[in-house]
Structures are given as C-alpha cells and as structure tokens.
Design a protein that fits this description.
By secondary structure, the protein is an alpha+beta fold. The protein is built from nine helices and eight strands. The chain folds into three domains: 67 residues, no CATH class; 102 residues, Band 7 domain (Tetrahydropterin Synthase, Chain A); 76 residues, no CATH class. The protein has a three-stranded antiparallel β-sheet. Strands 6-7-8 form a three-stranded antiparallel β-sheet. A two-stranded antiparallel ribbon has the order 1-4. A hairpin with a 2-residue loop joins strand 2 and strand 3. Helix 4 crosses helix 6. Its main location: membrane.
C-alpha cells in the first residue's frame, strides 16, 4: 500500500514483462545467496519485507527491485596504534583488535551507510575515550577489564546498526624509551631494597640464634671444647694443609690483667 498507484503500475508492468519474456526473464528474477549471506530487497526504494531473504533461492522483479547482500560472518580488524594520554599524564601508544558480526541485515543496510568502516572509526575513538580514564598501572595490569569496557561501549553504540561486537583485545602497549628506562631503574632499586631487607632479617635471625647458642654453651664449659673439635674436624675434611688451633679468650684476659 505504501508504493502508491504509480508504484503499483510499475510493479504490474514488471509482472507483464516477466510473463511476456518467459522463460528468458526467469534468469533475471532468480537470485542465489550463500549460507552465510542474506539479501535485503528494495522495491522502488522501499524495503519489501522486515525479514531478509536467504539462504538459497529468492525472486526479484526486474526494473523495480534491487537487493543488497549482507555477509553474516564474523569480521576482525586491527585498531591502528593510537597515541593516548593516560589519566596520570603518560603518553603511550596502544593498538588492538576487534571482532564483530552483523546480526540484523536490515538495520546494517538501512541505518548506516557503511557498517564496517563506521565500526572501525568508532573503535578508534572508543579506545581513546576508555584508556583516557585509566592510569598507567591500570593500563598495564588490567587489560582484560579494559577489553570488557570497550566491548560493552562498542556493542551499545553499534546496536542500532545491527552489529554485535563479540570481542575486543588490547594487542600491544608501547611506552616511551625514557619511561621504560625509568621503570627499569625503579624496579631494580625496589629489588635491591627488598634484598637488603631480607639480608638484614637473616642477620637478625642469625644473631638471635647465636645468642641462644652462646647461652647454652655457657651453661657447660666442656660444650665449647666439643665445638672446637667439631670445627677442626670440618677443616680437616676439606684437606687443608693449615690447621688452626683456637685459643680461649679467657687465657688472654689473664695476661692483659697482669700488664
């Protein structure tokens, strides 16, 4: 009914043309689309049905109908490297990859001029907007969360275009050379600090153990002599030519008192 009287006259003329040129006109009317494709038919500029045709055979009227094929397979594309200023004023270069598919052929044809190119441009701006709210630490450690945020934002924006964004991944984050050197120096200093702390804790534990051992030896003077003999046994086991005989410090104190 929306075609109007003149439109219906053209459709009737097209039907008469098919009847007059049958069976040659059948080659102009029968079209085929593959399993992964759908056809959106326009009759005198209007969409004939809210459901796309296919897969398989479908019919169009010559001179009044034309159709657009829409591929329903998942499409992937790379987001070009984007220079992004993070929340903590650090400039980084980030790129990614987006996977999407068309779930509504009617909307992808009628609501946007080029669904693929529009999605690519929107992915670039979305990457900038999402990463601009993150600091460098979050950008390096929470890539999965950033990918989910980008997917949700893209999926919501492209839904009127009949597009379903299935997955978004951050491929690479490139830092400036000066920042890489500064981060490496910071990490090295942090490791050295932890190593010194661990060594100091070990020395403290060793000193406590030596204190407890000295208290035990002080209760039995003969235990100190046994410890001397154990030390000599250890030195002799290494096949050294020099043997050290420890001299008790108490003997030296007697000579020092006489002086």
């Amino acid at each position: 009914g929306r075609l109007g009287c003149f439109g219906w006259l053209l459709v009737l003329a097209s039907l008469l043309f098919i009847i007059a040129t049958f069976p040659l006109a059948i080659f102009m009317c029968v079209k085929i689309v593959n399993e992964y494709e759908r056809a959106v038919i326009f009759r005198l500029g209007r969409i004939t049905d809210r459901k796309p045709k296919g897969p398989g055979l479908f019919f169009v009227l010559p001179c009044t109908d034309n159709f657009v094929k829409v591929d329903l397979r998942t499409v992937s594309f790379d987001i070009p490297p984007q220079e992004i200023l993070t929340k903590d004023s650090v400039t980084v270069s980030v790129d990614g990859v987006v996977y999407f598919r068309i779930h509504c052929p009617i909307s992808s044809v009628a609501n946007v001029s080029s669904a693929h190119s529009s999605t690519r441009l929107l992915a670039q701006t979305t990457l900038r907007n999402v990463l601009g709210t993150k600091n460098l630490a979050e950008l390096l450690s929470d890539r999965e969360g950033i990918s989910v945020s980008m997917q949700e934002a893209l999926d919501e924006a492209t839904d009127p275009w009949g597009i379903k964004v299935e997955r978004v991944e951050i491929k690479d984050v490139k830092l400036p050379q000066q920042l890489q050197r500064a981060m490496a120096a910071e990490a090295e200093a942090s490791r050295e600090a932890r190593a010194k702390i661990i060594a100091a804790e070990g020395e403290m534990k060793a000193s406590r153990a030596l204190k407890e051992a000295s208290l035990v030896i002080a209760e039995s003077p003969s235990g100190l002599q046994l410890r001397y003999l154990q030390t000599l046994n250890t030195i002799a086991a290494e096949k050294n030519s020099t043997i050290i005989f420890p001299l008790p410090i108490d003997m030296m104190q007697n000579f020092m008192q006489r002086k």
